[in-house]
Design brief:
The structure is a single chain. Helix content is about 25%, strand content about 30%. It is α+β, with helices and mostly antiparallel strands. It is elongated and about 150 Å long. The C terminus is likely disordered.
Length: about 525
């Protein structure tokens, strides 16, 4: 209990005692308590008692005088550290100018320093000494460099951004100055990217279209590689076509660096034919463009254009013809197969010739695949209905049946592949053979393509043009109807089992056209 509370209790008790005494004195004096003013008397007694009590407390109670606290000062000597370099380093923060540069063909580190306004012999010598900075000595065109340059040309930092074939291989090689010292580091890095849509009406040809729609040069170059073959909408881009592209813009340190990968391309011709392709990479192999049914958008070839794989073949610079007995080059490939086997188009292309030669190819079809590549299919039993000059065919499409028409001694397919007019062996030729996607990869592609399709749909809606998805659905329906009509021919319903052949058997007995 505190001293103030003790004093308050004592005063309260003294007051009650004074009141009782006042009442007792009133009775002794012959006064009635209810007619007197005992409280007034009590107040007087209380005041007197209070004065006497305070005097007793001051004499008998504990002293209330505050003790004096004595302060003692201690002096400790401390050695001040040398912070001059750190202070100088801090003073330079914000005093340099950020600069960026894209490496051009023929550039060296010295020329890059000159472009950036860097005059720092110490930094040049340091690059020569440190192994992990060697990429600065082997610069490649297109690489991006960010730097910080002081007022007098001293180097504050220098970063080289390196992109690998996989996103996990991307990194930055960094040289920086801390105080008076130079340090180096290699850090993982990924560019910040933003998807950009270009949509508009094509001019006559891709060059004019790229200029009118402000399509970056490297994006236009990628567009040329999307469709590789005869059915390529970019090779003869018609005026009035709709062109839509989605590509990456890449940023580093909050600054635009360059235009990156073309992600999706859509070209709709004036006759409403839709060409559409999406970029896909599973992170293990180099990426490519595919349609949403998992087919490669670029042209690929079947080395054996038959639905029967057990065949024998020969491509010979000189052989004896089995019918005429003459020695002459056999610049095609004879593929043995039973009568009526299905012959397939080796790649996407346009039919250029359908004819018959009694003393040569017999019934044959010639297809132009673009880029100087053509194929020829001879000795057919018959040509598939609807296959005629000018018709576009798809890879794997039925174009005829195996026969022995023309100059042949047995049923087989005489198959020729020509590049720039030169006949080559399709079994060993260096042909584009990008595989179609697996079911799992196709699911990944469709998931990635969905937001890109939405951008295409939104663009069409804003432009007041038909929905691309609706146009594609109508195109698929027409194709299915045509296939159903073609399948009504009884000859198309022949089902053949693979037949094993002796690969070593000589094809001399088969014959061949030319």
């Amino acid at each position: 209990m505190t001293a103030p509370s003790i004093a308050a209790g004592a005063l309260s008790e003294l007051g009650r005692t004074a009141l009782i005494c006042a009442r007792a004195w009133a009775v002794r004096l012959g006064l009635r308590p209810d007619e007197t003013k005992p409280r007034a008397i009590a107040v007087g007694l209380f005041t007197l008692g209070t004065g006497l009590s305070m005097g007793l407390l001051l004499l008998a109670g504990p002293t209330l005088v505050t003790d004096t606290v004595r302060a003692q000062t201690l002096t400790i000597e401390a050695q001040t550290p040398d912070l001059s370099s750190e202070i100088a380093s801090l003073a330079r923060i914000g005093a340099y100018t950020p600069k960026h540069y894209d490496v051009a063909p023929g550039d060296t580190l010295l020329s890059v320093f000159a472009h950036l306004g860097i005059h720092d012999s110490q930094a040049l010598a340091y690059v020569d000494e440190v192994p992990q900075l060697k990429p600065f000595l082997a610069l490649q065109p297109g690489q991006h460099i960010a730097s910080g340059v002081g007022a007098s040309g001293e180097l504050e930092y220098l970063r080289l951004y390196l992109e690998g074939s996989r996103s996990t291989e991307a990194k930055t090689i960094e040289l920086s100055r801390i105080g008076r010292e130079l340090v180096s580091d290699v850090l993982p890095f990924t560019f910040a990217t933003m998807e950009t849509l270009v949509s508009g009406t094509a001019a006559e040809g891709l060059t004019a279209t790229a200029k009118s729609l402000s399509i970056p040069d490297n994006v236009a170059d990628q567009l040329l590689e999307v469709w590789d073959g005869a059915d390529d909408p970019t090779r003869a881009l018609a005026a009035g076509s709709t062109v839509r592209l989605i590509y990456e813009k890449k940023y580093a340190d909050g600054r635009f660096v360059k235009n990156g990968q073309l992600l999706a391309a859509q070209i709709i011709s004036p006759d409403k034919t839709v060409h559409e392709a999406f970029w896909f990479s599973d992170g293990e192999k180099a990426g490519s463009f595919y349609t949403l049914d998992g087919r490669s958008a670029s042209q690929t070839f079947l080395r054996v254009p038959l639905d029967i794989k057990d065949v024998s073949s020969e491509f010979a610079p000189l052989r004896r013809h089995p019918v005429t007995g003459q020695l002459r080059p056999h610049n095609g490939t004879d593929l043995r197969a039973p009568q009526g086997s299905r012959i397939l188009a080796a790649a996407d292309g346009r039919v250029t010739r359908v004819a018959f030669e009694r003393r040569g190819y017999g019934n044959y079809v010639q297809i132009d695949h673009g880029l100087g590549r053509t194929t020829l299919y001879a000795h057919m039993q018959r040509v598939q209905k609807g296959i005629r000059p000018g018709v576009l065919v798809k890879k794997g499409q039925l174009i005829g049946l195996v026969g022995r028409t023309g100059l042949a001694t047995g049923p087989h397919l005489h198959y020729e592949l020509m590049i720039d007019g030169v006949q080559i062996n399709p079994a060993t030729a260096d042909l584009p053979d990008t595989e179609n996607l697996s079911a799992y990869q196709l699911a990944q592609l469709r998931s990635l393509a969905q937001p890109l399709q939405s951008l295409f749909e939104d663009a069409a809606k804003k432009e007041g043009l038909p929905s691309p998805e609706k146009l594609l659905a109508e195109s698929r329906a027409r194709a299915e109807t045509e296939e159903a009509d073609a399948a009504k021919d009884p000859a198309d319903r022949v089902r053949l089992r693979p037949v094993s052949m002796d690969i070593k058997a000589s094809p001399v007995q088969l014959g061949g056209a030319k």
